[in-house]
Amino acid sequence: MLKATGATAAGVGVVHLAAAAPAAAAGPAYAHPGLLHTRADLDRMAAKVKAGAAPYAAGFAELTANRHAQSGWTANPQATVYRGAGSPQNYAILYNDVHAAYQNGLRYHVGGDEAHAETAVAILNAWSAKLTSLAGSADRFLAAGLYGYQIANAAELVRDRPDFELERFQKMLTSVFAPLSESFLTHHNNAVVTNYWPNWDLAALACVLATGVFCDDDRRVEQAVEYFKNGAGLGSVRNAVPVVHDDGLGEWLEAGRDQGHALLGVGLMGTVCEMAWNQGIDLYGHDDSRFLKGAQYVAKWSLGGDVPYTANTRKKGAIGGWSGTETASDAAAVDPTMTRPIWAMITNHYTKRRGLSAPYLTRIAAKASPEGGGGDYGPNSGGYDQLGFGTLAFTRERGIAGVGGSPAPSASTSGSAPTSASASTSGSASASASASTSGSAPASASASPSGSGAAAAGKAGDLAATGSSDAVAWSAATGVTALAGGLLLLRRRKRDARGE
Fold first, then answer.
1. Cβ neighbours, 10 Å, residue 88
2. CA angle, corner 452, sides to 448 and 455, nearest 5?
3. What is the pTM of this model?
4. Nearest 10 degrees: CA dihedral of 95, 101, 103, 108?
5. Residue 334 half-sphere exposure, CB side, CA atoms within 13 Å?
6. I want to staple 126 with a disulfide (CB 3.0 to 4.6 A). Which of 6, 77, 397, 457 is the partner?
7. Omega into 55 within 30° of 0, i.e. cis?
8. H or E element at residue 81
């Protein structure tokens, strides 16, 4: 088990976390609730909504208006869920039920109506009683990753309910979802390691980490943390953000593919960082806050700003079979109205918890507020890739959960020397020796792999008008700043210190 410690290292640019933040688990178990939402988070939401405070009230209104958040939703569990060409695809049944469970669980904690907790429990119990496998094309790995981390988060909201079948649910996570995600991170569907773009790794990472926390499993948590830092695939942070430019922006690899998939990747990396943070593990600040630099890059680009892009060529194909290369030479075109409910979580961490300046994140989060969730961003699977409702869930006051309970000091991030673009570059082609299948379209704005990519622009036009005045008032100073040294020294709970 990893946790933060409470001292300051001199002369090495390393800051240790005070015990108060992020939340660290007590004893051998992990903190619960402790995936995307801690007990303090849930209490904050409930208190702010009860007081009618902005922007929480607007965020809660988004939740209560969603059809998935209504008590009485009836689950439709399947024994086998299929995703991908050549199979009787039924994965939409799963993700709709998962979002209904999550939204009802969240609505219960904020509003207090027992009917919503009962609905969430009934949905989750129904699935754990019936689901035995995930199948299909390579897209089955996406199903395992995306819906695995999501269903674990839904269950975390009701895990202490006496009618929730906890052990049966844990068995489903560890026998149906997590094995596929672990297999993908290890073997990449028997493809060359650069074959799949970052979002594939990141979906698998999110599932493994969520399963590890939910099941109090050190091995899985440490596997996810190690892969985030040093994994060979494109989802590790140095491969997803292979170049840091002198202006402090970190080039997001999948910007060379299309906007929808880049947004998906940023949202998934933020999800991994937030779940880790709530267990005392700081991936947000790893490698001089490299994720901040990448998220700033994608935010600026998505707002229509010009960003540099270093041409790169990746190897693709199956080991011992078909092989080839593909080059991404420039950042793809963007639609400034395209959005996903990903920005509130990331922006609030860096600007409020850490007290850093992140002007592009600040602007795009204000534009996207109030964030909705599954069902609010179009009918296809891309609109269900994130759980959402960040305006409600992640808005926080400056200085809450910072180092020692206060904002972290600022220091320029431009001290990171630009790195080579040669660290593997893209990869999402299916690992079949034949032509590309799920998620393998070449870098173009029109690529849409099995619904996992293109985000619907269903919440465009009037977003800024309903945004929080507090959000708009956040600092928009030029440049990007970061925690001094950018690293938080993390120690194993039961072992010697892990080196960065």
1. 8
2. 75
3. 0.78
4. 180
5. 24
6. 77
7. yes
8. strand 80-83
